[in-house]
Design goal:
The protein has five helices and seven strands. The protein has about 180 residues and is α/β, with parallel strands linked by helices. The protein has one domain: Rossmann fold (3-Layer(aba) Sandwich), CATH 3.40.50.150. About 30% of the residues lie in helices and about 20% in strands. Strands 3-2-1-4-5-7-6 form a seven-stranded mixed sheet, sandwiched between helices. The longest helix has 13 residues.
């Protein structure tokens, strides 16, 4: 059995289910801290556990969060957290639709600070290939469920991305890249 810190689904910050392990949550927050991310776009937020963390962060710091998903099945507490922050919101639609891609593209140009797109919807390799070209040099893109839903071989040939190898990513299912 995996130790508690590394089990997906064992985490419910603010009482809201999160489909990540504590180690994965820590890795995401370390990426935000280390690379001074000011805009975080999450593709696929399921119940809104990670969104709840980002909503609170957006209330305390100069930090924008956008969550994209097809189904508004999030916990009502997440919607309340979003309502309390002008820098955090959800958009509902297919992450591969032209409207959503254009919307994300517009969000990316609003900030001169580093941005991060986090792919956690249904087809991570396709999400990475679709959204990586929208990034500027220095921006990050990452995906959850590496070696569970896809392998590194499925994504290693995406142009202009440099893989980030860090101790805080070890023992997570997250792969992270920096746009070069």
């Amino acid at each position: 059995m995996k130790p508690f810190l590394f089990r997906n689904g064992a985490v419910h910050p603010f009482g809201i289910p999160l489909s990540h392990s504590w180690a994965a949550v820590g890795a995401i927050l370390m990426a935000i801290q280390e690379y001074k991310i000011r805009t975080f776009i999450e593709l696929g937020f399921e119940h809104g556990g990670l969104a709840s963390i980002m909503a609170v962060r957006s209330r305390l710091l100069l930090f924008a969060y956008v969550g994209v998903d097809t189904n508004p099945r999030t916990d009502s507490d997440v919607h309340e957290l979003m309502a309390d922050s002008s820098l955090a919101h959800f958009v509902f639609g297919d992450v591969f639709s032209v409207d959503i891609i254009d919307y994300v593209k517009r969000q990316l140009v609003f900030s001169n600070y580093p941005k991060m797109i986090y792919c956690d919807n249904g087809d991570k390799p396709k999400e990475l290939r679709t959204y990586a070209p929208l990034l500027s040099p220095g921006d990050l893109i990452g995906a959850h469920d590496l070696d569970h839903e896809y392998t590194y071989d499925d994504i290693k040939d995406i142009p202009d991305l440099e893989r980030i190898e860090a101790e805080w990513l070890e023992d997570t299912r997250i792969v992270l890249f920096r746009k070069v």
